[in-house]
Design a protein that fits this description.
Blueprint lengths: L42 H4 L5 H5 L5 H12 L2
Length: about 80
Amino acid sequence: MDCLRCGTCCTAPDISTLGKPVGVRCPHLGEGGLCATYDERPAVCRGYRPDEICRRIAAPTLEERVKKYRELFGV
């Protein structure tokens, strides 16, 4: 599956390597839904692959997608 460029994976989960808490938009997430530091991103980000969860949390806005993600994972 290709990345949907929705920004949810850069917002919903915590990214301890970057000191980013759950539900907070990563400061490196660009307006187009892509990482502004893609070539230097941490290993946790490099390891992420779009999957069925991306489809399950699909929604019109980033806020709605993050809400669905947090409900799905209980965070």
